[in-house]
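Input chain follows. Return C-alpha cells only.
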Amino acid sequence: MGRKRILGIKVSGRIKSNTEIILNELLRPAKEKGYDIEIISLIRYNLKHCTGCFGCNNGELKCVIKDDLEIIKG
C-alpha cells in the first residue's frame, strides 16, 4: 500500500494569510506522522462555476466545462 496523502486547499489569495497559517498548523501533526502533504491555492487556477448541464453524466464522469478542474483532480 502506498503512502497516505492529504490535500490542503487554500482559498485565500493572500500570501501568509491567517488561512494559510491555520492550514499549515492543522496539517503539521499529519506531516510529523509521515503523511505526504500537499497544499494548493485555488486562486492560482482557472475554475468556472457548474452550470447544472449534467454534461458530466457522460460515462467518463468528466466535466464538459474547460477549466483547471481536471488538473486539481489529477
